[in-house]
Structures are given as C-alpha cells and as structure tokens.
Amino acid sequence: MFKRISYIWAVVAIIASAVITSCSREETNSLVVPSHSILVAAPGDTGSTTFDSRNISSLVPVTIPKGWVVNSVDMYNSTITVTAPSSFDNEEVESGTMTLNGYTPTGDINTVSVYLAIVSDEVDYTDKHANCYIATEPDTRYIFDATRGGNGDIELNTERIELLWQTSSELIKYLDMRDGKVVFYLESAVTTDDEETDVVVPGNALIGAYDASGKLIWSWHIWVTNNDPTAADNTFEMAGYTVMNHNLGADTNSDGDTNDSAIFRSYGLYYQWGRMTPIVGPNDWNFAANYDKRLFDFNGLDLSLEYVESKVGGSIEWSINNPVSMIIGNPDNAYDWLNSGHDDTLWSGTTKSDYDPCPAGWQLPASDLYANLTIAAVDDDMAWQEAQPMYGWNLVDTETNEEHFFSAAGRRNYLDGRLDNMNTNLELPVPWSGYYWTATTDGDDAKALYFNLNTNTRTWNGIDTEHKMHRANALPVRCVKVK
C-alpha cells in the first residue's frame, strides 16, 4: 500500500513538474526601451540608451534612419548605442525612428521602436540643484543631476528614474537617465492642423528617483510654462524681495482677467507646509464637483492623488517615499501632517532649505514679504457681482503704492484634503479665498497671506498678512529670489 501511494505521488510530482515547465515555456516575454529615444547634441555624436527585456535572447535592428549607424546592441549590459550622421549630403536625416526585433529562444518576436534625433538645443541644470526645474523651450533637451536632492547636499543612490505623473499625457517625453543625469525632452505644441508652433504645452510633472531595491527615494517637480517666471517682466520688487508674479506651477498671472482659462492657468500647485512635493489643485477653474486635476502616469493612464491618514504617512521619510499624496492633519498634533511634533526647519525664510519647493536661485519667503499689503481701494469698493469674476484681488503695497494681483486659488483642507474655495451659485454664493504660505512658523501653526471676498453678506472683505494656518493645509506659494 505504501509503495502504491508513493507511486501515485511520484506521478503527481511529474505532472506538476510538466505543468510548471509548460508555464515557464509560455512565460510572457517583454521588450521595453524606457526612454523611447536616443538623443544626441550634434552631427556625428554617439548616444545610447538602455532597454529592459525578459526572455529575449537577441535584439536585431530592422529599420534605421538614413545616415545613422548602430554601433552595438549589448545584451549583457542592456544598452543600444548609435552614431548620428556627420554630414547630410546624401539625404541623411537628422531624426527618425529605428525599429528593432527582439527574438525569444523559441522564435517569438517582440518589436520595439526608438526615436533617434539630433537635438542641438539643450538646457543643462546639472550644477543648479533644486527640487523644481523650469522648462520653457520647445524642441529642447533638459538635463539635471539624478544623484543629488534638495540643494545638492543630499546624496542619492539613484538606480533608475520614472515619470510619476504629469498633467498632460504628452507633456515631457523621452525621459532617460545616463551617467547619473536625468534627461527629458520638450516638444513644440502643435495646432489642430498638426503644424508645429514655437511654444510648449504648459503643465507640471513629477519625476521620481528609485534605488536598487526599487524604493522611491526622491522626486523633482518639472514646471513647464511659456512664461518664464524668473524673467524680469514676470517679477517685481516688494519689501526687499524680488518676487515671482506667478504662483509656483502656474502658467500665468491672470491679472484680474475674468476669462475662465486665464483664471485657471493662474492657480498653480499646492503645498503642505514643509513638504517639497506639489499637490495638484482642481480640475476646473470654479472647483466644480471638487474634482482633482487629472493626472497621467508614465503609461499615459489616469492616476489619482492619494489621501492618507497622518498615523500612516505622518513622517518626513514617508512623505518623500510617497509624493503623490495628501496627508490628512493629525488632531492630536495641532493638525500638522506630521504624526508627532513639528519641524520648523523643513522650510526657511532666511536660507533655502533642502525641502524648499522653489527652483534653483529662488526660495520661499518669510512672512514679512506680505506685511505691507492691503486690498486696493478700487477693488474693495466694487459691488461683489463685479469683484467675484476676477477670482482674486489687486493688493497694494502701502509703502510704494504699487499694486500686484494675487489669485484666489483656495486651498486643500487639512481635515480631509477637499478643495475649498467658492462656487458661482448667485442664490447662495460661497466666498472665494486666497491663501499663500510663508516659511514662517507660529507655535503649532505657520503663517500665510490670507484674503477673502464675502459674497454672502457683502459686509466684509478681509485680508490678514500673517494668518495662522494648520500645517496640513495645502496652499499655493510665491517664490522669491535668494538674497
């Protein structure tokens, strides 16, 4: 009897082994070039990119743009190296698509396409470390250091990078990491007739750095805009600071325009006090239905913002490892997003901290920036029906009498992350409000510029230049030039 049972189990084991072997033979094969491209700076230059493969034994070029040469396809190091044409006398091309076939041991074929191009325009941020990089030029390659975080003081063991989200599925392209540098490309926006323009599609993106274990260890915000916020005509002087007139992440300052598109493009991004990573705002200019701004992941698929309790995400390390999140305020910690205690050093109004969200050369302001602001008299005297469509105030500097427009972009509430601002219901209007973080703390809370239009009773238009706010609120910010 024992021998018979042993025999049956032996048969079962053989069958199971056959099933496992069969499954392994049918195991999915894959071939991916994460960057989708090889971009070089000049004719005759050599460039390379990496590929990820599974169950692929060989990779063979099938079609190559005229004049380009494939130097090697290294299966061991998973790299493809090409050289661009050095002259264009015989119909050689500056750009084109190369296709390669990946063959499995059983003869199956996977085909992959790689865009090859000479891109002479380049913006190199390698020596300008920050958590945000501005990108304004179309048909341009952008480069920054993937091995340093913050102001460059934080060393990162970056093994690979990945697009975490972007506000348009075609915003940044051909993301790659070579020799410890992040490289991405901005295309020109196109018209409805598929004609190229000399502008970019504005928006925002977040690129993440991963270590060898697959852990997300840092992220960088890419601010894509046609209006360089650092240009002289997009800044002003106030209280001893040079100030951007754009909210961080915005494409424009609406300047009191009542056009829906101008208002929406002026909002920018939202930040919890002390966090370096941006949080998106509403999907509509009027905060309709409280929907979040639509996001796309690296595959072009929809991605949702996460809402996380402080007891789960309330640490600095967790917030860095999980940047696509809004951390709900902890009532036992004065509604800080940190689960316990406060860290007043995360942001600074005197020096640029490693968690400062502004671009290189720019930082968050101290609360004294807004000390002399008040609502311009003309705006304050308007009927609410006239003031409401501006979605903001002209604020006047009482020392210089100069006016500057600040959008009323609302906030994300510390209690649940909801978007708080206003609606357009004239029967029961809700006041719109403007909030702007400063780097100054005040006990458990931090200080913000706050103003509001009360359309319910029309008895009070308010402004408080040092308004105490719980740190788990997510507010817009304005950056000032590092002194």
Describe the structure.
The chain has 483 residues and is mostly beta strands. It is 10% helix and 37% strand. It contains six helices and 37 strands. It has a four-stranded mixed β-sheet, with no helix packed on it. The longest helix is centred in the first third of the chain and has 24 residues. The radius of gyration is 27 Å and the shape is globular.
Distance between the termini: 89 Å
Model regions low in confidence, pLDDT < 50 over at least 5 residues: 1-25
* Protein structure class: mainly beta
Mean pLDDT: 90
Q: Helical residue percent?
A: under 10%
Count of individual beta strands? 37
**Number of helical elements:** 6
Sheet having the most strands = 4 strands, mixed
What oligomeric state best describes the polypeptide chains here?
single chain
In what order do the strands lie side by side in the largest sheet? 2-9-8-5
Give the radius of gyration: 27 Å
Keywords:
single chain, 483 residues, mainly beta, 4-stranded mixed β-sheet, globular, disordered N terminus
Q: Strands, helices and their partners?
A:
Elements lengths: L1 H24 L4 E3 L4 E4 L5 E5 L1 E3 L3 E6 L5 E6 L4 E5 L11 E9 L5 E10 L3 E3 L7 E4 L4 E6 L2 E2 L4 E2 L4 E7 L6 E6 L2 E6 L16 E8 L5 E9 L10 E4 L2 E4 L15 H6 L5 E2 L22 E2 L5 E2 L2 E3 L1 H4 L2 H6 L3 E3 L34 E2 L9 E3 L1 H4 L3 H4 L4 E6 L5 E5 L3 E2 L6 E2 L11 E11 L2 E9 L7 E9 L4 E2 L4 E2 L2
